[in-house]
Amino acid sequence: MQISVRRVDTATIFDVTGDIDLANSPEVRKALLREVREIRTARVLMNLSEVRYIDSSGVASLVEGLKASRDLGSRFILFGLSGAAREVLQLSRLLKVFEVYDNEESALAS
Amino acid sequence: MKERNRRLSREFLLKLELHSNPRLLRVVRGVVERLAEVFGFSAPGGRSVTRAVDEALTNIMRHSYRGLPDQPIAMYFRRVRRRAGGADCGLEVQLWDRGIKFDPAKNYVRKSSELRSGGLGLDFIRQAVDAVEYKRVGRTNRLRLVKYLPGHQKPVSQPPKVSRPRVQPRNKGRRMFVDHGFSRDIKSA
What we know:
heterodimer; A: alpha/beta; 5-stranded mixed β-sheet; 42% helix; B: alpha+beta; 5-stranded antiparallel β-sheet; 5 strands
């Protein structure tokens, strides 16, 4: 898995590529929580278009990011969900819990 | 007994032994995905089997072995039938470990759309396969997962019989792999 960070205006975008599983989900969680809790970014966006697989620990990391952003009154947004990412969020019945957009443009414009 | 052993041997498909290192999860997913495909599962069916196995392994690594990356895990894959002599065929996966007792069936059940990070893996396993059974035998946790092929599908045919070569193996008498003690238990699987 690779995770890279971009800053666009007041938002931070994480581009994630590959599989998110127990081997690397702590890295995702750490990066997200740092951005939300320490840097206090107003909008944190996750680009999941290149994610091939997410396991329960990966979904749990996204949930942690969402909970932290709710606690601090910021926004946590997912966009460009790959088939695998959409499938796992549907399985977990969490798809409607997250703020989800089709692409980066609509996520940034929201 | 002989007949039972013959049947077990005939239905046996694959055995994997690995350490509880999360970096191996991706490798196992690749193997299970291919096996499910060869077994006759559709792409979504194969993804379900793969997810169930991946989540079960993740649970063993996280909970049973508490994150220790060098502990033994054995996996046995075999063909099973829903009823003796029946047509319904399924893929059985048994996951054995020597960690602390961990019964997924007795663990937390998530409510719909609940915003909690725990319990997701068990929820995924239950959704993905037709049967989930746990038992503790001695020091071993045994988790059994079964996914049946849809009624109209037939599993792949048995491999053709081949005669055994009469050549003596060069490593006869030597142990090629570290046996964590799972092997002697296979007949009771």
